[in-house]
Amino acid sequence: MKLFFSVYNNLSNKEKLKFTLIFIFILLFLFLELFSLTLLLPIIKIFFTSEKITLFGESFFFNQYNFNIQINLLIFLIVILFIAKNIFNAFLIYNRKKFLSDIQINFASRVYKYYLNQSYGFFLDTNKPVIIRNLSILAEYIAVLENFINIFIEFLVLILIIGVIFFNDVFVGSFIIVSSIIFTLIILKIFGEKIKTYGELMNVYQERLLNNYLDTLGSIKDIILQNKQQFFINEFSKNISKQAQLNIKNSFIIEIPRLAIEVLMVIGISSLMLVLLTYNKNPQEIIITLTFTIALLFKAAPSITRIIYQSNGLSFKIDVIKKVNLLLKSFVNKDKTFTIRNVIFNKIKLKNVNFNYKQDKKNFVFKNLELNIPKNKTIGIIGPSGIGKSTLLDLICCMLEPTSGGIYLDNKKIDEKLKLSWQNKISYISQKNYLLNGTISQNVAFAEMEQDIDLNRLNYAVRMSKLDSLVSSHKEGLNFKITDDGKNISGGQRQRIILARTIYRRSDIIILDEATSSLDNETEKEIMDDIMNNFHQKKTLIISTHKSKILYFADKIININDLKNKK
User: Fold this and answer.
1) Percent of the chain that is helix, strand, coil (3-state, to 5)
2) Among positive and negative, which fits the CA dihedral 300, 301, 304, 310?
3) Where are the domains of the chain?
4) Tens-digit pLDDT profile for residues 322-378
5) In this structure, which topology does domain 347-564 adopt according to CATH?
6) Distance between CA atoms of 335 and 110, rounded to whole angstroms?
7) By the 8 A CB rule, do 563 and 369 touch?
8) pTM
9) Residue 79 has pLDDT above 70, yes or no
C-alpha cells in the first residue's frame, strides 16, 4: 500500500477526484457481483433436490410459488442479473480506462511542464538519456494505478467468492482460505524478489540503449570515417540482447502461477472430496456443496491469476516508481507566473561575481568579477575556447546563478521576479542554435502558433537577414520545411534563419556566442556585416569569439583572461 500512496500522493486534486469516482463504480459493480453469486446456490439446490426451496424465511414471496415457477424465476433472474452486471462491467472498464488515460495525460503533461520550468543548471547536471528515459517511463508509472485498481477489484471479488463459500460451508471455506494463503505466500517468496530485480535491470539496459542511440546519431560522421560501425553494433546488440533475456525470464515467471493454479485446483478439489466423504456426509449434500464450490472456484481462478499477474507487474515496476518519485522530489517548483514588464536600464553590471559549477566546487570559473556593459554598445569578449566565455554569457542571461555576487540593471539586482522580464529582452545566437523540424516561417517566428505569426514582421526579418534568397530558391517559399536540425540547408543559411529569428523577436540585448566560428571566412564576414548594419548602436550587442577580426565594429573589446585574473 505504501507503493500505491507514493503514486497517489503525486496526483493533482482533480486527478485524485477522478480516481475516487473509479472506486465508487467499483463498489457498485461488486454489489451486483455479490448478488449474482448468491443466486448460484439456490439454482444448484433446486436442480439436485427437485424440490421447492425456501429463501429468506417463510414469508418471502418467492417461497409461495411451486417448483416449476421457482425454477423459471431463478433462471430468468440470473440471466437478467448477469446481463445487467456485464453491461455495467463494460461501462466500468471503459470509464476506468478513460479515467486512467486522462490521469496519464494530465500527469505526463505536468511532469513535462516541470521539466521545462527547471533552471538551465538542472539540465547541465542531468544526462540527456536520463531525461529521455524518465519521460518515456511516465506511462508505466501511471500504469501502477491501473495495477492497483485491478488487484483491488480482483481481491474483493475473491473475498466475495470465498465469503459466499464460507457462509455456505464453514469447513470448505476454511480449507480454501488456508490453501490460498499458503499458495500465495509460496509464489511471492519464490518469484517476488526475482521480478523486482528484473525490473531494476530493465531500466539499466533501457538507459544504455538510449545512450547507444544518442552516441550513434551524434557521432555518425566519425563512425563512418573511422569505420567503427561494428563497435557500435556490438554494443547495441549486447544491451538489447540482455534486455530481451530479462523480458523472457519475466514473462516466463508470470505464466508459472497460472499453470500452478490449475494443478492446485485439481489437487484441492480432489482432497476436498476425500475429506467430505470421510466425514460421512449425505452424498446429495456433498454433490451440492462440491458443485457450488467448483463453480465458484472456477469463477475465482481468473481473479487469482490476475492478482498474481498484476502483483508481479507491480514488482517489475518498483524501480520505475522509485525513479519517478525521486525525479518529482528533485524538481524545484517554479510554477510561478510573473508579469513580464518593460525593463528600462542604462547599464548591465556584474558586481563581485563568484561562480563555480556544482560538479567542481573547488575551482572557481570567476572570482570577484566586475563588468559594466553600457546600453546600445557593442562589447567584444575574446579568448580561447574552454576558458569561460560561454559561462560569462550564461551569467549575464541569468541562465546560471552566481555562487555569490549579482547581476544588476543599473543599481537594481535581477531577482527571481525580474529575471523573466530580463530574459524576455535577450536573443542568443550560438554556434549551433537548434532548428525546429518545421517550415522557415515556423523557425523564424519560433514557437508561435501559425495563426499568431505577424507576417509583416516575418517578411521584414527575412529581408533584413538576407534569408530571402533561400526562400525564393524553393517553390514552397516560407513554407519550405527544415528537416533534422537543418541538415537540408547550408551552415550560412542556418545562421541566417537564427539571425532572422532575432530580428523577428525585436530583442534589446543580442548575444553572440561563437556564432560564426563554423562558417567560412566569406560567409562569416557577410553575416557580421549584417549584424553590424541591423544592430550596431541600436541594440546592446555582446559578441563572444576567439577571432579578433570579427570585432571590427565593437565599441569595446575585453579579454576574458583579464576578467578571470582580476583580484
Assistant:
1) 65, 10, 25
2) negative
3) 2-330, 347-564
4) 777 777 777 665 555 566 778 888 999 999 999 988 767 778 888 889 999 999 999
5) Rossmann fold (3.40.50)
6) 10
7) yes
8) 0.67
9) yes
